[in-house]
Amino acid sequence: QVQLVESGGGLVQPGGSLRLSCTASGSIFSIGTMGWYRQAPGKERNLVATITNGGSTNYADFVKGRFTISRLNAKVYLQMNSLKPEDTAVYYCNIWLNTMDYWGKGTLVTVSS
Q1: Backbone dihedral region of 71: left (phi > 0), alpha (psi from -120 to 50 degrees) or beta?
Q2: pLDDT tens string 32-80
Q3: Rounded Cα–Cα distance for residues 40 and 45 (Å)
Q4: Within a 13 Å sphere around the CA of 112, how many CA atoms are in the beta-carbon half?
Q5: Among 58, 2, 48, 8, which Cα is nearest to 25's?
Q6: Coil, strand, or helix at residue 40?
Q7: 41: which of 59, 84, 85, 91 lies 20 to 30 Å off by Cα?
Q8: Do 92 and 6 meet the contact criterion of CB atoms below 8 Å apart?
Q9: What are the angstrom distances between the C-alpha of 21 and each of 42, 43, 64, 93?
Q10: How far apart are CA 12 and CA 10, in angstroms?
């Protein structure tokens, strides 16, 4: 049984920063691409950023220059700077483990004054 657990969400003022973490646990034999997605109220889930085994990163245009994805072993991180109200959403981590696609349950990020 594999489980992903996100943490680090919360309430932050515009211009502030948050760091999200996602830890995979369980019977893990291989780890592939890791990523973060987000879903705002009433909207579809969108890609935020991904990072491959080799460290190659890909970012959505709306976070380029503000967010940084990184990984270490079975953990993936998302450093979010210069946050805007439109960044408010539930953030989900996604990790390819043992050639299967796993999702966390999400962590809420609210950007508001």
Answers
A1: beta
A2: 999 999 999 999 999 999 999 999 999 999 999 999 999 999 999 999 9
A3: 7
A4: 7
A5: 2
A6: coil
A7: 59
A8: yes
A9: 24, 23, 19, 9
A10: 7
Q: How far apart, in whole angstroms, are the C-alpha atoms of residue 91 and residue 36?
A: 7
Residue 85, both tokens: 């109200």
Tell me which residue of 99, 86, 102 sits closest to 6, measured CA to CA: 102
**The token pair that represents 109 in the structure block:** 């990020």
- The alpha carbons of the chain give a radius of gyration, in whole angstroms, of 13
Q: Nearest Cα to 9, choosing from 95, 94, 88?
A: 88
What pLDDT, in 10s, does the model give residues 35-47? 999 999 999 999 9
Other beta carbons less than 10 A from residue 74's beta carbon? 17
- Whether the CB-CB separation of 64 and 22 falls below 8 Å is answered with no
Bridge partners for 2 per DSSP: 26
d(Cα 90, Cα 37) in Å, to the nearest integer? 8
Is-contact 74 26, C-beta < 8 A? no
